[in-house]
Amino acid sequence: METIEEITEEILNCRKCDLHKTKTNYVPGVGNENAEVVFVGEAPGREEDLKGEPFVGAAGKLLTEMLSKIGLRREDVFICNVLKCRPPNNRDPLLEEIETCGEYLKRQLDAIKPNIIVCLGRFAAQFIFDHFCLDFTSISRVKGKVFEVEKWNKKVKIIPIYHPAAILYRPQLREEYEQQFRKISELLNRKQPTLFDYL
Ligand code: URA
Question: Domains (ranges, CATH) in the chain?
Fold first, then answer.
């Protein structure tokens, strides 16, 4: 089974689509390769492109703050995007870019085998739902709900929530957002019953 390091190495040399020509840096992902939870965003923005790290701009600061509210540091989780290069002027990802680059995300998930996948926004949610054969309607219908799939010989939870940038534009959603992070925290703390629990 390949490691996150091996996948990162490949991403850093990728020329599978034209985005590598306009990017400053590849943004493969950061965090813990043994993470229990993976956060998936859409694509790097300006700050991320300059730094080579996901979610380091304004939306990233909000994500980091939400994580710290539930006692998580960025290095406790794994954070990445569907696309590993910034689309020019932050335009929406194209279908073919999602299909091509999304293969890296699938391999990253296979390497980490997280218990929880949090989809940040509609592009991430659509991609993850498609990959796990779930029916995606719209982010406003599914946000905050927990979907369970069978993967890597265990039950894996998928939670689509708003993209943190949406909360920056609509601060009235912040309370609901904090509640969704508390839900993630509860799921993380819910340990699997052991034989000991039945004795
Ligand atoms: N928005 C995203 O979807 N990803 C980032 O890394 C930054 C902003």
Answer: 4-188 (3.40.470.10)
